[in-house]
Amino acid sequence: MRHEGVTYHRDALVPTALWHLLKRVYVDQDWPIGTDLDELNEDARTTIQRPDTEIYVYGYYRTDPPRLQWGFLNPETGISVIYDMEARLIVTVFRPEEGSVFFERQIGMAKIDRKEWNI
Fold first, then answer.
1. What is the pLDDT of residues 68-101, one digit of tens each?
2. What are the helix (H) ranges across the chain?
3. What is the architecture of the domain spanning 2-117?
4. How many percent of the chain have pLDDT more than 70?
5. Could you give the CA distance from residue 104 to residue 13 in angstroms, rounded to a whole number?
6. What b/e readout covers 5-32, taking b as 16+ CB neighbours within 10 angstroms?
7. CA separation for the pair 104, 11 (Å, rounded)
8. Which one of 38, 79, 88, 118 is separated from 32 by 20 to 30 angstroms, measured CA to CA?
9. CA pair distance 86, 80, nearest whole angstrom
10. Nearest in space to 22 (alpha carbons), one of 71, 90, 92
11. What is the pTM of this model?
């Protein structure tokens, strides 16, 4: 795979953020070719900060034990951001095909009411 003038071969070690970018652009095709990390990070910030973004808290079912995560989904753009409380970092930015169902099937999911919580 070639990205920004660099060729990446199978099993190449790349930084996590770059791996997610390459996956979202070339595999999932959620963002157009040419998208860079700054643009992906800006999409994450904008998604979290928008008042119409839905907020979920849940236990991620694919880890044992489940990890506490916060999910942010903007229904207008379809962009989701996952923040892992234990790792204290954004673990991914993506566009789940199933929309809010992705969050609703997580362990102990609670949807946060932004207006009631004033956030």
1. 999 999 999 999 999 999 889 999 999 999 999 9
2. 16-22, 37-49, 101-104, 114-117
3. Roll (3.10)
4. 97
5. 33
6. eeeeeeeeeeeeebebbeebbeeeebbe
7. 33
8. 88
9. 19
10. 92
11. 0.84
